[in-house]
Structures are given as C-alpha cells and as structure tokens.
Amino acid sequence: MKRLLFVLLALAMVLPVFAAAEKDQAAEGPITLRVLNYADATTPAYAVEKEIWDTFRAQNPDIVLEYEELFDEAFHTKTEAYAAAGRLPDVMFMWPSGRSSTLYNRNLVKDLTPLMAPVKNEFVPIATSPGQFGILGQIPQSTTNTHVLYANLGLLKKLGLSEPKTYADLVAMVPAARAAGVEVVLIPAKSDWVMQSCLFSMVLGRIAGDEFINDVLAGKANFTDKPFVDSLAFIKRLYDDGVISRTALQIDYGEGPALFASEKSLFYIDGAWRVGEFITSPDSGVALIPPAKQQSDFKLMNFPVIPGEKNANSSSVIAGTGFGMNANIEAGSAKEAAAWRLISYLNSAEVLKKRLETGAFSNVTRIGVTASKMEPLQVMNAQLAPAKATYVVDGILDASVYGPINIGLQEMALGTATPEQVAQTTQKAFEEWEISN
Fold first, then answer.
1. Where in the chain is the domain with CATH 3.40.190.10?
2. Which of 164, 156, 161, 155 is nearest to 302 (CA)?
3. Considering Cα of 171, then 175, then 176, then 180, what sign does the dihedral take?
4. Architecture of the domain spanning 30-143+319-377
5. pTM of the model
6. Residue 92: what are its φ and ψ, rounded to 5°?
7. What is the secondary structure of 24-35 as a DSSP string?
8. Which of 14, 100, 330, 426 sits at 20 to 30 Å (Cα–Cα) from 378?
9. How would you classify residue 430: left for phi > 0, otherwise alpha for psi between -120 and 50, otherwise beta?
10. 313: left (phi over 0), alpha (psi -120 to 50) or beta
C-alpha cells in the first residue's frame, strides 16, 4: 500500500511537468523562417522556381516561410538595407564573396562548416571549403562561367559572315551588321555589374591574369599599372570600334535574352546561368529559341583572341551562388534546425536536378546529380570549358573597390572618364579599403 501511494504521488508530481511541456510545445507552434530569394518571376523557368518552394512548404508543414523574392539591383539594395538595419532574413540567397561581401565582413552569416560536416563527402570540395573570408557562408550549388559569348550562327551565315577567331574579325563585322540594322555584340549594361562581371573580368584575366590581382592585394602592384589600364582600354575600344553600341547602357538586364533571340544582334554576352532563358519553358512549353534551331543556328563560345592577351582562351569562373544562414540564429536551436533543413533541401539532388533541367546551372556541386533531358544549348553550356579559369572581379575584390570599377566602365562608355582616370579612382578606393581593414 505504501509502495502504491508512493507511485501515485510520483505520478502526480511528474504528469503536470509532461503536460506543461506538451502545452509549451503546442504554444510554440511551427517555426517561422524569414527568407530572401533571388528570382525573376518574368522568366520562362519561373514555374520551376515556384514549384521548388511550394514543394518544400508541402513537405514541411511545421515550418512557415515568410518568403520574399527580388531580382537584379533591387535584391542587392534590399539586402544591404536589411544588413544596415540589423534585420537580415534567417535564410538568404548569397554570393560566395563580392556581391555579398557586406554579410561576410560584418560577420552577419553563420559558418556552415559544422552543419555541412555529415554530408561533406556528397559534394565536390569547392562546395565545402571556406572561401576568401575564411568561412563557409553559403553552399555553392554550382560553378559558373560568368562570361559566355552567345553566337547566332544562322544570322552570321545570312549576312555572309563567319565565326570570329580574333577581335579583328568582330570589328570587320560592324559595317555588315549596321547595314542589316543589328548590333554586333549586345550586352545589357544598364545595371553596372553586368559589364564588370560578364565581360571585363574575362578581359582582365586574359590581359593581366590572376597574378596581377594577387600582386595588387599583396602590395606589389597598383591598379594604375599598365595591365589594368590596358584591360580598361580594351572595353573603351569595344565602344569606339562599334563592336558594342553605347545604347547597351539603356538595356535592362531582363531585356537581353529576348532581344538576342529576336535577332537584334549577332552575339550576346551574359553569364552561363542565362541559358535557362532560352530553353523550353516547363510551364508554357515555349522556348525563346526552339530546340530544333538551337543545334544548327546557335553556339556558346568563349570570346575570340584579344590583342595583348597573355592567357589565351581563358575566361572568368566563380564558385556559384547558394543560401546562407543568419548568424544570430542560436546554435542547436529549433530555428537553426529548421533553417538547415531548408538549406539542405535547396542543395538536394531533387532540386539541383531541376536546376540542371531548366538550364539555371550547367553543372552542380552535389556529386552524381545529372539531368537526362537537356536541350542542345544546355549540352553546349555544360561542355563550355575555358583553357584557364580566372578571377571574377566582384568575386575577389571588396564591394568598395569593385564598385568604382563598375561605375568607371559605364563612364568610359559615356566618354566622361578615361581608362587612366578609372584606374586612379580604383587605386584610391583600394587604398582606402586597405586602411579601413
């Protein structure tokens, strides 16, 4: 009887504790995550983007997403505003350096190395290695050629022109292109990052090489030195020779693919990620460039030989974008577990395969992920490999340094700055950055 009374008394003491715990858990409810994604809702591939996020919501009813998506400069402006206000989202789309340097420099994102450790062997080394800031701030989903020369071989043939081997070949096309009312090379340069990331970085790699940038960072060279000035001068020459029209500064980034697909130019410059804009839309079944035409009429290639280049057939390549986590999320917390579940899903074989199939990526960092249904342009993209991979300017320099380069490239096009002046402005910005760091 005494033993029975003791058990009953113990139960009376313990049951309220369990009940309280259950009540607290119920009161907590689902975990809410604020998310900022980089996406363009106007593109043909957006239906798959939406499907990816809808699938996560359906499979994870215990996680509520306060979801926001922006594109191009609106995204970067909003990210900087969130960082300045101390209101960074819990999970956010990020670059491995450059465009997300504020997040790294101010220690606003977690080092994901410990969370990544159990699945490290499922990814290629670049996806699990700390970047230039010493942490794994985001999981790169791919590696990316930031420069691709998209060529309309059918239009070239129609005008009696051949695939260019040298820059002089491009210059020689200007009269025929003008007579036909088309541009030689179209680049949507209204957003200042495009010229720097998708063209100038390749030019700098060809003429100056990564060694020059390494020397600048080590204090052994300056941006006012000849290799950098010569690289800037080549961009000015593109405008002066008529290979690129100054009207490029009026073309929004989102307008570029449709203009090229409608034969407004012989060539188009963008990143490898832009292939997804040309292939068949999973939603409408419509392609900007029908698959039947892709094989014979279009080609993805590297820029032809540039005068004074030291690295033949090189191109700018960077570890791809991915998703990072707010550093303020407590380690070991339920919110951290939820955020990591989302990031893991976005790096899953399921999602990365969709990215391949839509042309968003030409390759992925998760080992063994392939896509069976790839259109000809996607296959060309996957096979496009430069002889040497060189730095992307906004992937190796701080925003306070590459910002003046971006603006300077536009000023040269407008004729309001010389290559030498842009080089001086860049060097000054670099020296100020060194002092502040």
1. 30-143+319-377, 145-317+386-436
2. 164
3. positive
4. 3-Layer(aba) Sandwich (3.40)
5. 0.76
6. -145, 150
7. HHHHH-SEEEEE
8. 100
9. alpha
10. left
Assigned CATH for 145-317+386-436: 3.40.190.10
Other beta carbons within 10 angstroms of residue 10's beta carbon come to 10
For the CA atoms of 405, 408, 410, 414, what is the dihedral angle to 10 degrees? -170
Phi-psi region of 185 (alpha: psi -120 to 50; beta: other; left: phi over 0): beta
Tokens 């990816």 appear where? 52
Task: Decide: helix, strand or coil at residue 268.
Answer: strand
Read off the pLDDT of residues 268-299 as tens digits, 9 standing for 90 and up: 999 998 988 888 776 666 778 877 777 778 99
CA 41 – CA 47 distance, rounded (Å)? 8
Beta strands in 281-352 (DSSP E): 298-301, 314-319, 322-325
Q: How many residues are there in the chain?
A: 437
Q: Which of 17-21, 220-224, 226-230, 247-251 has the lowest mean pLDDT?
A: 17-21
The two three-digit tokens of residue 392, written as one number: 């992307």
Per residue in 14-49, pLDDT tens?
A: 334 333 333 333 346 899 999 999 999 887 778 889
